[in-house]
Design a protein that fits this description.
single chain, 182 residues, mainly beta, Immunoglobulin-like, six-stranded mixed beta sheet, 14 strands, globular
């Protein structure tokens, strides 16, 4: 028999879902973070140490956040070229393919972490008594295997960020292109 979620976790899941689905932040590609009121705007970008790989090689891609203030929860919608990239599973104990949570945000409660044919959704939040985090760091990491040569785009279609109070944190996103050779 499945145990019910503790009330506290259920409340946080409900709050996080309401806050993140209700947030309307910037999405799409951005070249550089902009200045807002003298402050550098938050940027969520995809990065890899190996932007050029060969067919059958693997590549690790991280969602990296910069210049964030008081982050407590995150929802990332990632898309990728499924004809050229195969999403690899980061957690064999779970069904399907998942991302590996990064070390910037303490993933006390992961509400959703699932990938499919061309997409991945990652939703996580901290829980009390964790303090909100500020600065730069890795939110999550995914691993792909190259299946066909060509240019494969990996994009953040949506990056929703929230403070402990549920206030949306405005952000820009940046995509990544991986070159796959024979």
């Amino acid at each position: 028999m499945r145990k019910a979620l503790p009330f506290c976790k259920l409340m946080y899941l409900t709050l996080l879902t309401a806050l993140l689905y209700g947030c309307r932040t910037a999405s799409g590609a951005a070249t550089l973070p902009s200045q807002v009121g003298g402050q550098t705007e938050t940027l969520v970008k995809l990065e890899t140490a190996t932007p050029t790989i060969a067919v059958n090689q693997t590549v690790e891609v991280s969602a990296w956040i910069e210049n964030v203030q008081a982050l407590y929860g995150v929802e990332l919608h990632l898309t990728f070229d499924a004809e050229r990239l195969l999403l690899l599973d980061a957690d064999d104990a779970q069904t399907g393919a998942q991302a590996r949570p990064g070390d910037f945000l303490s993933p006390d409660f992961v509400a959703r972490n699932e990938g499919g044919d061309g997409d991945l959704i990652f939703v996580a939040t901290q829980l009390p008594p964790q303090a909100p985090v500020s600065g730069d760091g890795v939110l999550m990491t995914v691993q792909f295997r190259a299946t066909q040569p060509g240019a494969a785009v990996v994009a953040l279609q949506q990056a929703l960020l929230a403070s402990p109070e549920g206030t949306p944190i405005s952000t820009q996103t940046r995509t990544l292109t991986i070159t796959i050779k024979e």
